[in-house]
Amino acid sequence: MTQLAAVNTRQASAPAPSRAVFSLFGSKPEVRHYRIGPVPVSLTSVVPGVADDFHELYRAYAVASPTGDEFAIDVIAKRSARSLRRYYHVVANGESLFAVRNENEILPHVEWAINTMVATRLPQYLQIHASVVARDGVAIACPGQPGQGKTTLAAALLSRGWSYLSDEFALLDPDTRLVEPYPKALCVKAGSFDTLRRMRLPIDADRVYYKGEKGRVAMLNPLKIRPDVVSGRCRVGMIILPEVNHSTTPVIERVSRAHMVFELTRCSFNFGKFRAPGFHLLADVVEKAGCYHLRCGHLATTCDLVETFFSRQAGAEV
After folding, report:
1. What is the predicted pLDDT for the residue at 229?
2. The Cα angle at residue 159 between residues 209 and 144, in degrees rounded to 5
3. Would you state the CATH architecture of domain 126-184+226-317?
4. Most exposed of 160, 163, 193, 211 (fewest Cβ within 10 Å)?
5. 93/15 Cα distance (integer angstroms)
6. Cα 255 to Cα 274: distance, rounded to the nearest angstrom
7. pLDDT tens sequence across 278-316
8. What is the pLDDT of residue 198?
C-alpha cells in the first residue's frame, strides 16, 4: 500500500470544519462539477483562485450539474483557536483529510484528496499505483512507489506522441482486462521542470505549488500537450518497474512474470478486497505483457530504450 491510502502527516484530526468558517473570506463559495474519466468530482472552495486553477486543469471534463455520486471536495478556511493562524482544510465527503498553512499548498492537496477517494471508492476496478501511457491502443504501465520517476517518464513519452491514461492509477477492469483512462493532471516535481521544458512540454514555472515531501511541483494539463492526447481503454502490452539511476546510461532487463505479479500486488491499493480473483486478473494481464525492470538514466535515451523494447514486444505478438 502506498502513501496515497495513508493519511498526510498534516491531516486534520478534528471533524470537518463548519461551513461558517467560509465567512473568513467574506464571499460565497464557488461550486463546480466534473467527471474525469470514471471519477466524479464536485469542488467547493471559497479561497480565491483555487476553483479557477482546478478548472484550468479540468475544464474539458466540466459538467453542468452533479449526478449524485460525486466525490465532494470542500476547501475551507479556519483559524486556529489557539494561535489565530489561518489554516486551509481539504475535506472529502465530510471528512477532513488535510490541513495546510499556505494557499500554494491547497491545489496539490485537493488532487491528493481526490486520489485518496479514488483508492477507496471505486471498488469496481483493481487499482495499481502506476503511470500509464499507450501507443496504437496498447499500454505501458509503470507501477511503483513514489520517487521512482514514473511521472517524468510518462511526460517524456507523451512529448514523443504517446497517449495518456494516468500518472497515478492503472484502473484494471476485471471483466475486460483493460485499463480505464483516468486523465488527471500530471504532478511534476521541480527537479524535472528544466528537462521536460527542453522536451517542449508546457511546464508553467510561474505557477508552482507545494506538496509536502515532494516539495515544489507543477500541475501539467495533458491536453495542453496536444488535444487528442488522452487514450481510450487499452490492454496492457508492457509493464515496467522504473528505478531512479544516478548513472546517465539507462538499463532495461526482463523480469519473470511471477515476480511482476508479486510487485503489482504490492503496488495495489485494493488487492485485499479482490484476493483470489485479483490474483487471477493480474496473472492474466501479466501473461500477455512484456515484463521489465528499468534503471532510468538520461531521459531521452531512456525513452529511446523503452520505445525500442515496446516495438520488439509488439513485433513478437504479430
Report:
1. 97
2. 65
3. Alpha-Beta Complex (3.90)
4. 160
5. 12
6. 24
7. 999 999 999 999 999 999 999 999 999 999 999 988 766
8. 94
Answer yes or no: are the C-beta atoms of 177 and 234 closer than 8 Å.
no
**Which residue intervals of the chain are DSSP H helices?**
50-58, 106-121, 150-158, 193-198, 257-266, 271-274, 276-287, 299-317
Residue given cell 528537462 in the structure block: 195
Cβ–Cβ < 8 Å for 195, 152: yes
CA atoms within 13 A on the CB side of 212: 19
Q: How confident is the model at residue 149 (pLDDT cuts 50, 70, 90)?
A: confident
Pairing outcome for strands 71-79 and 126-135: unpaired
Place of cell 486478473: 281
Q: Distance between CA 74 and CA 280 in Å, rounded?
A: 38
Instruction: For residue 257, give every residue at least 6 positions away whose Cβ sits within 8 Å of its Cβ, in sequence order, or none.
Output: 283, 286, 287, 291
Q: For CA atoms 289, 294, 300, 301, give the dihedral sign.
A: negative
| 299's grid cell | 531521459
Question: Any idea where the domains of the chain sit in the sequence?
Answer: 6-121, 126-184+226-317
